[in-house]
Amino acid sequence: MSDEFYLSLAINKAWDYQLLTYPNPAVGAVILDENGKILSICAHQKAGEAHAELNATKEALESKDSSLKSIFAAAKNPNELYNLIIQNHRNLLKNSTYYVTLEPCAHQGKTPPCASLILAMGAKRVVIGSRDYGEHAKGGAEFLTQNGVEVKLDVCKTRCDELLEPFLRWQSGNFTFFKIALTQNGVATGGVISNLASRTHTHRLRALAELMVVGGATVCTDRPTLDARLISGRAPDILIYSSKTEFDLQIPLFNIPNRKIEISNSIEPAFKKRFVMIEGGENFLRNLDSRVDWILIYRSNEFKSANNINLDMKVKILHRSIFGDGELLWCKRLDLGINA
Amino acid sequence: MSDEFYLSLAINKAWDYQLLTYPNPAVGAVILDENGKILSICAHQKAGEAHAELNATKEALESKDSSLKSIFAAAKNPNELYNLIIQNHRNLLKNSTYYVTLEPCAHQGKTPPCASLILAMGAKRVVIGSRDYGEHAKGGAEFLTQNGVEVKLDVCKTRCDELLEPFLRWQSGNFTFFKIALTQNGVATGGVISNLASRTHTHRLRALAELMVVGGATVCTDRPTLDARLISGRAPDILIYSSKTEFDLQIPLFNIPNRKIEISNSIEPAFKKRFVMIEGGENFLRNLDSRVDWILIYRSNEFKSANNINLDMKVKILHRSIFGDGELLWCKRLDLGINA
Lengths: 340, 340
What we know:
The first copy, chain A, has 2 domains: about 170 residues, Cytidine Deaminase, domain 2, CATH 3.40.140.10; about 160 residues, Dihydrofolate Reductase, subunit A (3-Layer(aba) Sandwich). Helix content of chain A is about 30%, strand content about 25%. In chain A, α2 crosses α4 and α5 runs parallel beside α6.
């Protein structure tokens, strides 16, 4: 099978944690042993937890020797895991191949550099999607090459760069996505369209977003809570985008402790935040025009006898995740974005 | 990686040729070598051509020894390929693992039995999705077990059974699918929604369908040709479902040589055919009610400012194929079908 095939496995895995790694990039890694057998397909899952390479290395070693599981389980943090791996790997990954969607980091962050880890494992070859241009982390490919590891760059480059878009926009100041639930025939209204799995995913995103924007009409009509109760997560701060200045304070969203709420007839304050999530319907999406980077469409498995959201817009579908009987489409507006 | 992981690769490959194998089932196969490396991911592509197992065996052997390519290229048909493989495999697939979405056939059809091929290769293990209950082909798993090959059955059974649905319905008399092109927001009207890749796929299906059904209103409004010119294929016979009995014979569809056209205010004649394709819009789909097995939705990458198709219906999304900037959703009506 081709390098593209194996890197695609890493890309798809990384998408499972897209945005959930905030403020870190979504990264996936695949390891093949010296005979070309797949040992692990892993991703970075959450900021502060292990990088994709570390996760994949752990799983690959455990698949070679399951007795390592109890040893690695003792690690209380990624740093300890890193050290336990260095002490216990017994060259089990000698001559392995690493596939990584992003160039392995070369810097000491919360964990030691992934490039050093890969070298310590005795990897023969590293296939990389996107290059890391970050001032701190860059240099992993060069480090590996200088130490005799064969490095191939820019494989599935477009897809790996797309995976990095939110991260690059967080770094440059703001990433904003619009979340909407639609039926198969484009209906956004009339009761809950999303299923429990997709609502749980929404709550995960809410718990991470710096700010959540919602329209005044939605607040009055739906009387929402807009918290992250399904994952017992932090409720996001709210910007109510509305020309109205007074709302019924009995609406649940106003009664969440430690939540900041701003009411504004301008959406500009939102774009000063790094990670912004917008939930709304047709009018909101149309009015926001070109200010949205990505649109996340939760699509149910139903056709519903009702009117669709009615607007002109072209998207690129970057990825599709399955959520129970529905799906989540990760879409990019085609007329903007960092690569447009 | 799990058996489910490898069988999923075979399932996804088989979907690439779903319906195009008519009247044969869509089948996929994956082969791992003795060390667990993936050697091939193949499918049955077309009736009369090689079965999935034969295609996968050829590709696996070629990946072990590329000089076999020129030898196998000399085969003029699947039978010759089978024999060339038997003569030249040099035990390169000794102790391999086969993953097959459908139990390998045990009968001499247009090619010798796949079960015998797998045994001849020296496979150690065969992982199977659906069982073959067909009077002629069944018995492959038993044959392999009796000859010392480890066989695992019913892996990813639901997904493999779904893959077989059209085949089982062809066998029992009729499989009917409805094809519709929709925008992201459920609009079916207003010019060409599908792209070249999806239109080519439609023409492939037309060339295979025993009968194509289209509504009288569509005939008058769109003045279509309804042939398979994009693949230089046979234009299907047509049933115009209409209370009208007279049409403008200048409409291109009436001027295709060797095409039978029936005009009827009943759709019943269609369901006497084995493989029926319906192309139409909202009203047609609503009126057909529960007579459709599958709905194929070509979804474009656009939102369009227009009304949606407006009906109630619940589907199960069985698979998604990418076609250029759009996608094809393979959907099953949830309130009927062989498994419902």
